Amino acid sequence: MKKPLLNNPLNILMAAAENDGIAHCKVGGIGDVIRDAPAALAEQGCKTSIVTPSCGFLHKSDGAEPVASVRFSFAGRSDQAMLYRVRPRTAAAGRSTHYVIDHPHFLQYSAEKKQFTIYCDDPREGPFATDAAKFACFCAAVAAAIKDNLFGPLDILHLHDWHAALLLFLRKYDPDCAALKPLRTVYTIHNLALQGIRPLRGDRSSLESWYPQIRFGSDVPGELRDPRWTDCINPVAVGIRLADVVHTVSPSYAEEILRPSRPPEFFGGEGLEQDLRQAKREGRLHGILNGCDYSEVRPAKTGIKELLTLIRAETARQTARKTALSFADLTALQTLEKLENARKKPSLIVTSISRLVDQKLLLLKTPGSDGRTGLEKILQETGPKGLYILIGVGDRDIEAFFAEAAAAHSNFLFLNSFSDQSAEHLHASGNLFLMPSSFEPCGIGQMLAMREGQPCLVHCTGGLRDTVQPGINGFSFEGTSIHDQIDRMAAALREALALRAAEPEKWKAVCTAAAEARFLWSDSAKQYMNKLYKTPAPKNRPKFATTANKMGY
């Protein structure tokens, strides 16, 4: 263990929706960051606590201990929650203190999936309504716990994504949250596409309903309003405007979000580029690349035959736990059986592990210039001797698209589930990892594949641009239109596979460079210290009214 660098350690509280430092509290990349960043900060001499909602089950985990009752005001009434300290799931996570707050409002159970969930998929006519109310309540409870000194004396309040941004609202506008004012505040944007926008009033899930004790009348400050829908509050905008420091998870993404989005070709500031430019001018916006864990014991690389056997066994285990076999599951099991019984196994495995959302896979669903989808082009380039394996769950329509494609193409295996074991084996034993995200704030999949010596083919955007060096440790593509991007993706795959076939020594050098690349959390933590935690907040910061007027409010 390294000696701490600080004589007087900074005490940091991170508030987030996910935390993979404890069991069953991860959906996406936020969970990875909250798991790994605190351990790296401990090496810098920091003391970090993490708090998330209990979601109705996390406080019941083995070793969870009640800490204190938390009294707070929410939705016009005096309320009460319970703070629990929970057991970390790894030794590295044990270098931080992990909490969950339990309240009936946080309980979320999916009858369809027969499990507790972290997020709720609300209907299109009421986006974010359930989750926004839940996280507004969570922020009120966390603010009260800070006031009661339940996390100890704090120096830094580090808030992650829109779920925790309303703590900044309470810090500024609620007199009962005065204890938050001395804390230095850091706001991290993990994905600008999700902003949690809700009405200012007139709805059960609205700012006025959550915090009626804070009265504005008709004169709601401009810094709370969304720049497009001015009768709504935008938590991400609040985070950007009110935090001492704003942080994104890669340097390239920090630059991209300063430009307006032009979907589907380019995804940038998503309506908040003016606010982000203002933060940049004030010296408050920093892009710091996330790290990757290189200490884990991982599966050894296997041959293709062994890889398929391992995946088939894991897929059978996963489907056996389901009450009904889906079309996607049935197709996957049939394809795996054929592959296992075939005399000649595939000579090439192209892999993808992804959430099934448009951000990640729009380029595979959309036709290129010749009318064929990106997936069809990928399968053509992979060829009959190759196999493209995609693992993921997500949007139902996207799941259906890939399930139908898997039934129609013998060189495509779609596993409509997520298994850590299958993912680890694919990272270790695939030949080329495909990550065609339309935008990518940082990305972890490409780092995990590279860690195992599997080169990646990526869209040159965000954190993918910052981690994959074309022709050195991987391959990439760009394009001015979505059709151009799809065509160039297929061309880049063709060129990569041609290199593998014709110049094996050069291919081996790319694989070696991928394996030797290092994206260390220790480096990220040092930048956290210098750019986010220790740099003084800018002086003479202009009032938002000036910025708002320029923006046309």
Main beta sheet strand tally, sense and closure: 9 strands, mixed
**CATH class category name of the largest domain:** Alpha Beta
| Overall domain count | 2
C-alpha Rg, in Å? Answer: 24 Å
Strand order, largest beta sheet: 3-4-5-2-1-8-9-12-13
The total beta strand count reads 19
Poorly predicted parts: 1-6, 545-553
What would a concise description of this structure say?
With 553 residues, this protein is of the alpha/beta class.
Could you describe the 3D structure shown?
With about 550 residues, this protein is α/β, with parallel strands linked by helices. The protein folds into two domains: about 10-290 and about 525-550, Rossmann fold, CATH 3.40.50.2000; about 305-520, 3-Layer(aba) Sandwich (Rossmann fold), CATH 3.40.50.2000. About 40% of the residues lie in helices and about 15% in strands. The chain has helices spanning about 30-45, 130-145, 165-175, 205-210, 235-240, 250-255, 275-280, 305-320, 325-340, 360-365, 375-380, 395-410, 420-430, 445-450, 460-465, 480-500, 505-515, 520-535, 545-550; strands at about 10-15, 45-55, 65-75, 75-85, 95-100, 110, 115, 155-160, 185-190, 200, 230-235, 245-250, 285, 350-355, 385-390, 410-415, 430-435, 455-460, 475. The strands form four sheets. Strands 3-4-5-2-1-8-9-12-13 form a nine-stranded mixed β-sheet, with helices on both faces. A six-stranded parallel β-sheet has the order 16-15-14-17-18-19, sandwiched between helices. The longest helix has 21 residues, at about 480-500. The protein is globular, with a radius of gyration of 24 Å.
